[in-house]
Amino acid sequence: CSSTFTGLLKELQSLGSRLDIGLSYDEYTNAVGDVKVVYDQTDFAGLDDLDCLSAAGLPLERALNQYVKASNVWGACFDDYACSNDSIRPELQKHWSKASASVELADGGLADMEP
Known about the structure:
- The structure is a single chain.
- 83% of the residues lie in helices and 0% in strands.
- It is mainly α.
- The chain has one domain.
């Protein structure tokens, strides 16, 4: 299980750490793109262990989806001259918080599955 999801987990944790410091819109979308590349390379189809998928795979996918939702919100604001980052900050924080919780859940799930 850990061999399947460790790369994706580490990439998501890295994105969370970068957010703690602060990222520009371009830096953020590039980082989300990096996570998506690792996600696309993860062999979900070859995984027969449903417990592993539930404990780690699904929470990691949910985390990526929350980061993508935040990217979409930020992108829509970026394209709207009347929108300010301050006006969307609560929504971005909501998505980032959900993503972080999902990453923590997956990390714990992987740890629980270790022999």
